[in-house]
Design a protein that fits this description.
Strand order of the largest sheet: 9-12-8-7-15-17-18-16
Radius of gyration: 38 Å
Number of helices: 33
Strand content: 15-25%
Number of strands: 37
Oligomer: single chain
Structural class: alpha/beta
Shape: elongated
Distance between the termini: 77 Å
CATH class of the largest domain: Alpha Beta
CATH architecture of the largest domain: 3-Layer(aba) Sandwich
Bound molecules: adenosine-5'-diphosphate, aspartic acid, magnesium ion
CATH superfamily of the largest domain: Acetylglutamate kinase-like
Helix content: 40-55%
Largest sheet: 8 strands, mixed
C-alpha cells in the first residue's frame, strides 16, 4: 500500500492505539444484570411526561479479562439512571476560548449528581477538516497550510484556556495528532483518493481536541472529570447509505468497561466520532454530535439530555427564514423527528430514537440566553390533545429541504402490474440515491418521488436503463425529471387526521399563489409534505407559517400616492391598527409608501406615527418595480395588497400584472375600470380565476356602499333595471344650493371657494368624472360599454370649453346664468328641481350623464350639502320603492374610509374573524 510506506512513527503509534482498543474490546464483559431488565424499552406511548420520576439504577457487572486472570468486580456499582444528566454543546457553543470558558462554567454550575457532556468540534473546524481531505485528494498542496491553520487555531485556544502541565499535555497530543494527520493527508495526496474510513478518521479530530481542552478546564475547578474518546465506547455498523447504526449492546459493554477504568462523576465526551465493531474509527456523519448525546443518554438511562445550541429552542420554522417563528415549548418525539428529518437542523433526526425508547426527555437550550427555558421534547401529556381547540395547536412547525428534484415515472402500463414500485426503487437503490418522499396517484399511472438534486441524474439513467423495454413498448410513457424543487413539511401530532388542517394549509399556499408539484401525507399523522418550486419555497414557508402562527390575517400593504386621500388613509390606519390587531386579529403592515418622486420602504412595517417625517428623512428615489418587489417579496407576510390612491392611468395599467403576481389591489382610482373595455374585461377575468382580490368600492360614491350593494344584488340573483344617481359631491352641492335668487355662477364660485371643486371647475361640470362612474356601474351590471358610449350633457357651454383657465371660465360663466335660471324656473313651476345625474339603463344597455328634473318630494330633491344619492331599480326593488344609498360621497376622510373598508373586506376574505 503506497500509504503504508509513508507512515510516520507516530502513525505507527496511532495504529497500535487502534489495536490496543481492539484488545480492550476482546475483554469479556457480562451484560448488566439489573438495568436492562428494569429499563426495558417502552413499546407503546405512555401519555405522561414522567421524566422527573426516574429512579437511580444500580448496575452489577462481572468482568473477566483476556489475560486469564479473571478479576471479579461483582457488585461494583456502575450507576445508571436519573443521577446522570447528559449535555451536548454544539460547535457554536465552543466556537472560541471565551465560549469554551462559558461552557465549562455551565458544567460546573450544573448540580446533577453525575454528568456526561458531549462536545462538538469548535465551530467551523469540521468543515476545515473536510476541506483538508478535499484539498489533499485533489492534490492541492495548500492542504499543508490549511492544516497549519487548524493547528494554530487550537494552539491559540489552548494557550488562552490552559496553563502549566495541562497546557503542555494538550499541546503535545495536539502536535502528535497533527503529525499523524500530516502523514495521512500526504498518503491521500499521493493516492489522489481518500477512503471513507480515512476521511472519517481525519474529520473527527476537532471533537478530540475540543473535548480535551474542555475537560482540562473543568478539572481546573477541582471537579472529578475525565475526557472520553467515544471511539472507545460507541460502536456502530455502517449501513451503506452514509449512515451508521449503533450497536447498543456492544456500546453499553464498552461504556461499562470505560467506567471501570475512569470512574468519574463528570465526563467530557467527544461528539460525532465512533468506531466500527472492528475498531476502525468512523463518525456518526455530519451534525452527528446530537446523535452521540442521545446514544450516551440511552446507554446511561439518563434523566435528560440537554442539547445546547445558539437558538432559544426548536422554533416553529427556521428562524433564519421566518423572522416571526416562535419557540415551541414542547414537542413530542415524533414531532421533533419529523421536524429534523425535514430540515430543522437544530436537531439531528437520529437523536430521537435512542432516547425515545427510554422516555428520556431532550431539552434544547440556548447557551447565549440562559433565561430562555428552551424546548422540551418528550412524550405528550395525556391532556394535550383533549384540551386543544381550533386547528392551530395540531400544527407545530414547518421545515424545508432544498436542492431536490422530483422524478416522475409515468405510463398506463404501470397500473395493476405487481412489482413496478419495487423495480423503480430497486433501480434507485442501485445508485444509492436517497428517496426523501414518495407519492403515487391512485390510478397508479404515475409514481413520483423526490431525491437530492445531485443524485437525480444517476437515478434517471438507472430508471431509463431498467425500463428500456417498457419505454420502447410504450407501457411507460416517460421518466421525467423536475429539477429545482424543495420540500415543505408541516409537522404536528394528530394533524393529518384532523379535518381541516390540510384544507387550511393548501388554502394558505393557494392564496400566496404557490403551485404545489406533489403531495405526500403519510398515515403516520405527523406530517403533510408538499413539493414546491425552489424559488417559491421560502414564500411557501412564510405563507403557511403565518397562516397557522401569525394573526389570522397579516397583510403587507403598499400605498401608492400618499397625497390627500392616501395620506388620510395612512393616518386612519395609524389610528386603528392596534385595535384591529387586538380585537380582530387583523395585522396590517405598511411596507412601502411611494409618491411619484420619492418612496419609503421597510422590511418590517413603517411606523405610521412618523411616516411623513420618515419619508423626508429616509425616502429614496421612487422606483415602482422596486417598491412592488419590496412590499411583495422581501418579507415574511404572504398577503400583499397595493393600494393605489392616485388617479393615474399609468399606475392603473399595472393592476393586471400585480394581480397575476398574487398581489391584491384596492383603489379609488377610476382609470382601470373606466378605461378601455378589453383591458377591463381582462382584469376582471383574471380576478375571477385567481384567489387574488381587486376591490374598488371608493371609485363610486367614496365610502358609500355602492359597488358592494350592486354586487350583492347581482350575486343574489336580482336583476338590475336602472341605476340612477347623483354621483358627484360637487354637482350635488351646486344644485342643492342653486335655489332662490342665487345665480348658477355664484354657486359654482362658492363651491370652488369651499374647496368642493377641482381647481378648474370645468373638470366637474363637464360631466366626465360622472361618466366614468356611470361606466363603472354599467360594466359592473354586465354592460359592455366604452366611455364614448355614454351620452354626456356637459354643463360647460361650448363657447367656454376653450377658456384659458378656470378663473377665466368663472368670469365668463355669468353669461349663462340666465339660461340656467330659466331651466330652474321651468322646473320650479312644475313643482320640480334640477339635478345633474348619471344613469345606467340596463334594459336599454345605455348610459348617460344628464340634467334631469325631479319632483320636489323625490329622494333626489331632498339632498343637502354635497351628499351623493344612488337609487337602484331592480326586479326586487321596483320603481316605486327603489333601493337608495345616500350620504357624503366625496372628501378625503370618507374616501379614505371607503378604501379602509375594502382593506378590511380583503382581510375577512383572507380569513379574519367577523
Ligand atoms: P449546533 O452547532 O449547536 O449543533 P446547528 O447549526 O446544528 O447548531 O443547529 C442550530 C441552528 O439550526 C440554528 O442556529 C438555526 O439557525 C437552525 N434551525 C433550523 N431550523 C430550526 C428550527 N425549526 N428551530 C430552531 N433552529 C433551527
Ligand atoms: N462537528 C460535526 C459536524 O460539524 C458534528 C456536530 O457538530 O454535530 O458535522
Ligand atoms: Mg447541530
Amino acid at each position: 500500500m503506497a500509504f503504508a510506506s509513508s507512515v510516520s512513527p507516530s502513525m505507527h503509534g496511532l495504529l497500535s492505539n487502534a489495536l490496543s482498543r481492539e484488545s480492550n474490546a476482546t475483554k469479556k464483559i457480562c451484560p448488566s444484570t439489573l438495568s436492562l431488565s428494569q429499563r426495558s424499552p417502552v413499546s407503546k406511548m405512555d401519555l405522561n411526561c414522567q421524566w422527573s420520576q426516574r429512579k437511580l439504577l444500580t448496575f452489577h457487572a462481572c468482568i473477566s479479562v483476556t489475560d486469564g486472570q479473571e478479576t471479579s468486580v461483582e457488585n461494583f456499582p456502575l450507576p445508571k439512571g436519573d443521577n446522570w444528566s447528559v449535555h451536548k454543546f454544539g460547535g457554536t457553543c465552543v466556537g472560541s476560548s471565551q465560549r469554551i470558558q462559558n461552557v465549562a462554567q455551565i458544567i460546573i454550575n450544573d448540580d446533577s449528581e453525575r454528568k456526561l457532556v458531549v462536545v462538538s468540534a469548535m465551530s467551523k473546524v469540521t468543515d476545515m477538516m473536510y476541506d483538508l481531505i478535499y484539498k489533499a485528494q485533489s492534490r492541492d498542496d495548500s492542504y499543508i497550510a490549511a492544516l497549519d491553520a487548524v493547528l494554530e487555531k487550537h494552539k491559540l485556544t489552548a494557550h488562552d484556556l490552559l496553563e502549566g502541565d495541562d497546557l503542555a499535555t494538550f499541546l503535545s497530543r495536539l502536535h502528535d495528532d497533527i503529525n499523524n494527520l500530516k502523514a495521512m493527508l500526504r498518503a491521500i495526496y499521493i493516492a489522489g483518493h481518500a477512503t471513507e474510513s480515512f476521511t472519517d478518521f481525519v474529520v473527527g479530530h476537532g471533537e478530540l481536541w475540543s473535548a480535551q481542552m474542555l475537560a482540562s478546564l473543568v478539572r481546573k475547578a477541582r471537579m472529578d472529570c475525565n475526557w472520553m474518546d467515544t471511539r472507545d465506547v460507541i460502536i456502530v455498523n455502517p449501513t451503506g447509505s452514509n449512515q451508521v447504526d449503533p450497536d447498543y449492546l456492544e456500546s453499553e459493554k464498552r461504556l461499562d468497561q470505560w467506567f471501570l477504568q475512569h470512574p468519574s462523576k463528570t465526563i467530557i465526551a467527544t461528539g460525532f466520532i465512533a468506531s466500527t465493531p472492528q475498531n476502525i474509527p468512523t463518525t456518526l456523519k455530519r451534525d452527528g454530535s446530537d446523535f452521540s448525546a442521545a446514544i450516551m443518554g440511552s446507554l446511561l438511562r439518563a434523566r435528560q439530555v440537554t442539547i445546547w445550541t445558539d437558538v432559544d429552542g426548536v422554533y416553529s420554522a427556521d428562524p433564519r427564514k421566518v423572522s416571526e417563528a416562535v419557540v415551541l415549548k414542547t414537542l413530542s418525539y415524533q414531532e421533533a423527528w419529523e421536524m429534523s428529518y425535514f430540515g430543522a437542523n437544530v436537531l439531528h433526526p437520529r437523536t430521537i430514537i435512542p432516547v425515545m425508547q427510554y422516555g428520556i426527555p431532550i431539552i434544547i437550550r440556548n447557551i447565549f440566553n440562559l433565561s430562555a427555558p428552551g424546548t422540551i421534547i418528550c412524550r405528550p401529556s395525556i391532556n394535550e390533545f383533549d384540551n386543544r381547540q381550533g386547528l392551530e395547536p395540531f400544527v407545530k412547525g414547518f421545515a424545508t429541504i432544498d436542492n431536490l428534484a422530483l422524478v416522475n415515472v409515468e405510463g398506463t402500463g404501470m397500473a395493476g402490474v405487481p412489482g413496478t414500485a419495487s423495480a423503480i426503487f430497486g433501480a434507485v437503490k442501485d445508485v444509492e440515491a436517497n428517496v426523501i418522499m414518495i407519492s403515487q396517484a391512485s390510478s397508479e399511472h404515475s409514481v413520483c418521488f423526490a431525491v437530492p438534486e445531485k443524485e437525480v441524474e444517476a437515478v434517471a439513467k438507472a430508471l431509463k436503463s431498467r425500463f428500456r423495454e417498457a419505454l420502447a413498448a410504450g407501457r411507460l410513457s416517460q421518466v421525467a425529471i423536475i429539477p429545482n424543487c424543495s420540500i415543505l413539511a408541516t409537522v404536528g401530532q394528530k394533524m393529518a387526521s384532523t379535518p381541516g388542517v390540510s384544507a387550511t394549509l393548501f388554502n394558505a399556499l393557494a392564496k400566496a399563489n404557490i403551485n404545489v408539484r406533489a403531495i405526500a401525507q403519510g398515515c403516520s399523522e405527523y406530517n403533510i409534505t408538499v413539493v414546491v418550486k425552489r424559488e417559491d419555497c421560502v414564500r411557501a414557508l412564510k405563507a403557511v407559517h403565518s397562516r397557522f402562527y401569525l394573526s389570522r390575517t397579516t397583510v403587507a400593504m403598499g400605498i401608492v400616492g400618499p397625497g390627500l386621500i392616501g395620506g388620510t388613509l395612512l393616518d386612519q390606519l395609524r389610528d386603528q391598527a392596534s385595535v384591529l390587531k387586538e380585537k380582530f386579529n387583523i395585522d396590517l403592515r405598511v411596507m412601502g409608501i411611494t409618491g411619484s418622486r420619492k418612496m419609503l420602504l421597510s422590511d418590517t412595517g413603517i411606523d405610521l406615527s412618523r411616516w411623513r417625517e420618515l419619508q423626508k428623512e429616509k425616502g429614496e428615489v421612487a422606483d415602482l418595480e422596486k417598491f412592488v418587489q419590496n412590499v411583495h417579496g422581501n418579507h415574511f407576510i404572504p398577503n400583499t395588497v397595493l393600494v393605489d390612491c392616485t388617479s393615474d392611468s399609468a399606475i392603473a395599467s399595472h393592476y393586471y400584472d400585480w394581480l397575476r403576481r398574487g398581489i391584491h389591489v384596492i383603489t379609488p382610482n377610476k382609470k382601470a375600470n373606466s378605461g378601455p373595455l378589453d383591458q377591463y374585461l381582462r382584469l376582471r377575468a383574471l380576478q375571477r380565476q385567481s384567489y387574488t382580490h381587486y376591490f374598488y368600492e371608493a371609485t363610486v360614491g367614496a365610502g358609500l356602499p355602492i359597488i358592494s350593494t350592486l354586487q350583492g344584488l347581482l350575486e343574489t340573483g336580482d336583476k338590475i333595471l336602472q341605476i340612477e344617481g347623483i354621483f358627484s359631491g360637487t354637482l350635488s352641492y351646486i344644485f342643492n344650493n342653486f335655489i332662490g335668487a342665487r345665480t348658477f355662477s355664484e354657486v359654482v364660485a362658492e363651491a370652488k371657494e369651499k374647496g368642493f371643486t377641482e381647481p378648474d371647475p370645468r373638470d366637474d361640470l363637464s360631466g366626465t368624472d360622472v361618466a366614468r362612474k356611470v361606466i363603472i356601474l354599467a360594466r359592473e351590471s354586465g354592460l359592455q360599454l366604452e366611455l364614448p358610449d355614454i351620452r354626456v350633457d356637459s354643463l360647460v357651454a361650448e363657447s367656454l370649453r376653450d377658456s384659458a383657465s378656470g378663473e377665466e371660465f368663472l368670469q365668463q360663466l355669468p353669461q349663462y346664468d340666465q339660461e340656467m335660471a330659466k331651466k330652474r324656473q321651468d322646473a320650479d313651476d312644475a313643482g320640480e328641481v334640477l339635478r345633474y345625474v348619471g344613469v345606467v339603463d340596463v334594459v336599454k344597455q345605455s348610459g348617460a350623464v344628464t340634467l334631469r328634473r325631479y319632483r320636489k318630494d323625490h329622494a333626489f330633491a331632498q339632498l343637502s350639502g354635497s351628499d351623493n344619492i344612488i337609487s337602484f331599480t331592480t326586479e326586487r326593488y321596483n320603481k316605486l320603492q327603489p333601493l337608495i344609498v345616500r350620504g357624503p360621497g366625496a372628501g378625503a376622510q370618507v374616501t379614505a374610509g371607503g378604501i379602509f373598508c375594502d382593506i378590511l373586506r380583503l382581510a375577512s376574505y383572507l380569513g379574519a374573524p367577523s
